[in-house]
Amino acid sequence: MLYNSIRTTSLSLLLTSCLLFLGSSVSAQNMTDGTTHRRDECGTHVTEDDIANAELAISRLKLPRQASVREYTFDVHFTIVAANMTERAGWVPNSQIEAQMKMLNERYAGTGVSWRHAGITRVLSRYWHDSIEAGLQQTNDMHSLFRTGKSTTMNVYTVGFTDASLNGYSTLPVNYARNPIEDGVVIFFATLPGGLSLERQGGTLIHEAGHWLGLRHTFQGGCTGVGDGVDDTPPQREEHYGCPIGADTCPGGGPDPIYNFMDYTSEECRTEFTPGQISLMQKSIAAFRSNSNR
Ligand SMILES: [Zn+2]
Question: What is the spatial distance between Cα 142 and Cα 190, in angstroms, rounded to a whole number?
């Protein structure tokens, strides 16, 4: 019956229709619960090993101390995973994807990074829409079937995170070589510009793309240690929400970087990457996402 209801010959739709049957034990849930209460902002985890491995690879590049900002263009491929063909179930309109691309390029202006819209794959699977989380078998299955491109293609999957209540997460460039299939960004579909989220209107992908290019949270490590590995973002004890002007949670270094895209502050509050972050992005690209390591 399901096959009869889908008037398409798309391989993607047919493949995931099969999986939809397999996953039919998952009950229907309200896809928009997350629009009325705070979800976890970001599920990206950066370990001490990730930091050490990235710093080692970057140190081997032997880059000049004052390298100029190089221009890079990355392809962006969207895989839209919806429970059915309505926006509330994740079937986001192309206009939101186009608005997200425009916003990516606006927010990354001056970083040397620009983004080219490479394509959209639409997938119907309530199971994946609800249950995707980092490291699960179904997540690996989804990436295996739909990932496209090389280390220079940012694969963006939009899902419901119904079980996880997340806004997004990303893999890190340092882990591309070890696990290229899982490389990419997974975001809550409603966070696209013009989408149903009350918290985010495009900012989630701006933030997650920062991780995809090697940036850490501004509050990484709290007040001690190497933190986010960037000199011009003052240390910050923990994440901020809203826009707490004047917040200063660590001794020395100056006020917390609440305006930074790599904090959790509000959509209106987050407006900048620092020169130090731009330098770290450039080094991460040279080490892990340039044409020489495709
Ligand atoms: Zn994050």
Answer: 20
